[in-house]
Amino acid sequence: MSIPANLKYTKEHEWVRVEGDVAYVGITDYAQSELGEIVFVEVETVGENLAAGEVFGTVEAVKTVSELFLPVDGEVLEFNTALEDAPELVNEDPYGKGWMVKLSVADAAQLDGLLSAADYEALIGA
After folding, report:
1. pTM above 0.85, yes or no
2. Whole-number pLDDT of residue 85
3. DSSP string covering 14-30, please?
4. Closest by alpha carbon to 109, among 3, 26, 40, 18?
5. Which of 15, 68, 80, 116 satisfies CB 3.0 to 4.6 Å to 57 for a cystine?
6. How many angstroms separate the CA atoms of 8 and 21, rounded?
């Protein structure tokens, strides 16, 4: 199971990668493996300002639907439209092509409150 050290994580199994003033958000390798085959990703919050912990979308697997939670306050800038035709990218490449949204981070200090890779490993017992 992959847990890249350069990312931040949440207890709800989202990851965050900051590039300049934009953050990419997706679900972790652990989360996608627990969900199973991803068949649909829905994000209807593009253009909205949301607070950390608010639902920004849902991910549907063969057996279940799970809500997606924003890790930090910010504006949802973009949905990864590649997931419309290929939701399996979340399973195949959760930290790369399977990212879900781009986010404008409102308060970068909130990133310090997220889990490190080591903290996340401890959370999931990896």
Report:
1. yes
2. 96
3. EEEEEETTEEEEEE-HH
4. 18
5. 68
6. 15
Cα distance between residue 28 and residue 13, in whole Å: 6
d(CA 61, CA 52): 24
Tokens of 62: 């063969």
Residues 6 or more apart in contact with residue 113 via CB below 8 angstroms: none
What CATH class is the domain 8-106? Answer: mainly beta
Please choose, from the candidates 5, 4, 12, the residue with its C-alpha nearest in 3D space to the C-alpha of residue 72: 12
Whole-angstrom Cα distance, residue 83 to residue 25?
13
Q: What share of the chain is helix, strand, coil (3-state, %, to 5)?
A: 25, 35, 40
Q: Which two tokens stand for residue 71?
A: 């890790």
Query: pLDDT tens, 8-46?
Result: 999 999 999 999 889 999 999 999 999 999 999 999 999
Residues 6 or more apart whose Cβ sits within 8 Å of residue 77? 22, 46, 101, 102, 103, 104
- Buried residues in 89-100 as b, exposed as e (16+ CB within 10 A): bbbeebbeebbb
